[in-house]
Amino acid sequence: MPISRRVLTPVAAVPVILAVFTFFFWSWIIGPEEIKGSKHVLQLAKTIPLPGVGPESLDFDPKGEGPYVGVTDGRILKWRGEELGWVEFAYTSPHRENCSRDEVVPSCGRPLGLSFHKKTGDLYICDGYFGVMKVGPEGGLAELVVGEVDGRKVMFANQMDIDEEEEVFYFNDSSEKYHFREVFYVSISQEKAGRVIRYDMKKKEAKVIMDKLQSPNGLALSKDGSFVVTAETGTYTIHRVWVKGPKAGTNEVFGKVPGSMDNIRRTPTGDFWVALHCKVSLFTRVFKIHPLVGKFFMKILKMETMIDLVNGGKPHGVAVKVSGETGEILETLEDSEGTTMKYVSEVYERDDGKIWFGSVYWPAVWVLDTSVV
């Protein structure tokens, strides 16, 4: 046999071998890893459809009415119950002519984290394009509160929490490079371009209290107001930033979770619910080996394809409760088949025995009775 043929034959076989391997092991490569001890109960939740898409965050007003949710086209909607349904409450941009129900239009804004100031009734909104905004109890057009910090534009305000005793709030700016529409690139690029910001509502002064984070997403204040937790989605890590007491000004790792995090909400007892967009898989571990790997996938694949792959081809719902004292995982709830819940972005437990769930991509919210947990 000629030397050229002896060399080329094994080389030519490589694509065939890869194709066969991929065919038989594809589901194993992209399939989400199992979480030991999970309770598979989220499929029992009640679905409440929306006249819009992507209720990424939700909150209830000082009267207990709601929830209020922000959707893809820039509006804030309010739930008025089964008989009245959803009504329009507010919006973050006056430019409504080109807004789309299904796709984000930058000029329309994209409301993400929502937080009511219980004393004033004002609703604070983290908009993925404009910054932190505020609208009064009567709703309507929101006004800008924080648009830049330290001379740098707030590119991707994501979630916030308010300390009403101190009259300050904290929020995440998830990236100094990308806006919401490029949300997935923020995580897979592994760029340390996110920051946590403290805003003094009386002095109208903003200060960065932690930076160089890989896509910080969710944020919540502890029950006693001594620290803030922030979800670094790119590393599956929850950080604790001390804001009061002898440790004020320092930070530390608070906990780890088995997937890509979205929002964090404090429970009535002081623990935290963490919403997972998806669980960890072999595929997600591979593209996080090095920033160049993630950036390679960004170039060759569409964002929709990447989202499908990291979800294992099967969008699912996961919620993790972590201790408000130690950061350890207390319980995990799942709808691993995505029968009811998909792309869970927020888990909000109320003291009436109900847990509400938002979704960054789905046209619905869900509510679950804690008696089944």
From TrEMBL:
Cell location: Vacuole
One GO MF term attached to the UniProt entry: hydrolase activity
Ranges of residues in domain Strictosidine synthase conserved region: 158-246
Pfam families: SSL_N, Str_synth
InterPro entries: 6-blade_b-propeller_TolB-like (IPR011042), Strictosidine_synth_cons-reg (IPR018119)
Record carries keyword ATP-binding: no
Record-stated family: Belongs to the strictosidine synthase family.
Protein name, UniProt field: Strictosidine synthase conserved region domain-containing protein
Source organism of the structure: Arabis alpina (Alpine rock-cress)
